Amino acid sequence: MRIRTQSKFHSINPKTMSNLINDNDTLKKYVPNTLKAVAGEQSLFDKIHPQLQKSELYLTKRFLSEETKTNLITVATDDPLLHYCRMATVADTMLSTVPQLDLILTPNGFGIVSNQNVVPASKERIERLTRSLEKLRDDAFVIILLMLPNAHKWTESEQYASFAATMFPNFEIVNQLGYTEHIWQHYLEIQARLKAIEHHLESYYFSHELMTTLRTANILNRWESTHAPVQYKRIYQRIAAIEFSVLRIDEYPMPSIMDTVNIIRTAKGSIFNEWKASETAKLFENHGYKNKKQSSGYFF
Fold first, then answer.
1. Which of 84, 113, 126, 246 could form a disulfide bond with 102, CB atoms 3.0-4.6 angstroms apart?
2. How many CB atoms lie within 10 A of CB 4?
């Protein structure tokens, strides 16, 4: 089944110019099998420029942020992150424009038809190409997401906040659940489920404060910023395992949840103070019946 690409992020200002891919020479580095245009014919860059703009905007809004992208283009021009951003942009563009382009199968892969005497590729080969382009784009997304925590001001962006909103900020969870195709689409679906699961877990068991600390330390891989790196990482691993179980069987494993709460509750000193000072911790205070002499129901 073919997954449709998302479109709600693709509305753009017509005056916006593509910055990641500015010319046909740069484009051809990422579409190496294009045939040379004949005299008077539009270059591939000219043909697909509007979609390049849309794909760049999508990448910026979903992953980079304007400030991070601008720094890549103007300052960090030799950063490998820029290479993978261009790769993702071109792959997403070609994925969207392949149905409108005439393609041929060359000895080195697919190319663009440049004269009327060449027979375009078959439907089956085009479908193979679109699957390949989607995988190329998604593989680039994986690498981009791993590089972004160290990118210029990315951790101050809305895009960072979006990925840091769950205990699983990268695409490993998709593979762990057994998906091997349509990785980005599956990640979006899984992320939506994770947000609901984590809202429930933090509201009734682990607290928003503690889970925010765990999510931040995990996406940045900076456990030393917590009060006790080993203990915090272990609690993260326990909660992540609980969430993974809920994703798989759609049931909350209460014994594991309560065991984890008890580890947090009984931690010594300032460890897990985020939880101990939270409203969630009050749910676990002892509100049971106490036998007092002043009570009318006092018994020996």
1. 113
2. 6
Report d(CA 91, CA 225) in Å as an integer: 38
By CB atoms closer than 10 A (0-12, 13-18, 19+), residue 117 is exposed
One-letter amino acid of 59: L
Phi, then psi, of 103 in degrees rounded to 5: -120, 155
Give the C-alpha separation, 184 to 171, whole Å: 8
Is residue 112 a contact partner of residue 36, using CB atoms and an 8 Å limit?
no
Across the strands, what pairs with 109?
A: 106
8-state DSSP, 118: S
* Calpha distance 182→217 (Å, rounded): 28
Tens of pLDDT along the chain (300 residues)?
333 334 344 443 433 444 899 998 999 889 866 656 556 677 888 889 999 999 999 999 999 999 999 999 999 889 999 999 999 999 999 998 877 776 655 555 556 655 555 555 567 777 888 899 999 999 999 999 999 999 999 999 999 999 999 999 999 999 999 999 999 999 999 999 999 999 999 999 999 999 999 999 999 999 999 989 999 999 999 999 999 999 999 999 999 999 999 999 999 999 999 999 999 999 998 754 444 455 444 434
What's the whole-model pTM score? 0.82
Q: For residue 142, give both structure tokens.
A: 């994986």
Question: Cα–Cα–Cα angle for 180, 181, 186, nearest 5°?
Answer: 95
Paired residues of 218 in beta bridges: none
7 closest CA partner among 69, 54, 52: 54
Sign of CA dihedral 130, 134, 139, 141: positive
CA distances from 19 to 11, 70, 72, 138, 171 (A): 17, 9, 10, 21, 27
Whether the CB-CB separation of 272 and 238 falls below 8 Å is answered with no
* Under 8 Å between Cβ of 65 and 154: yes
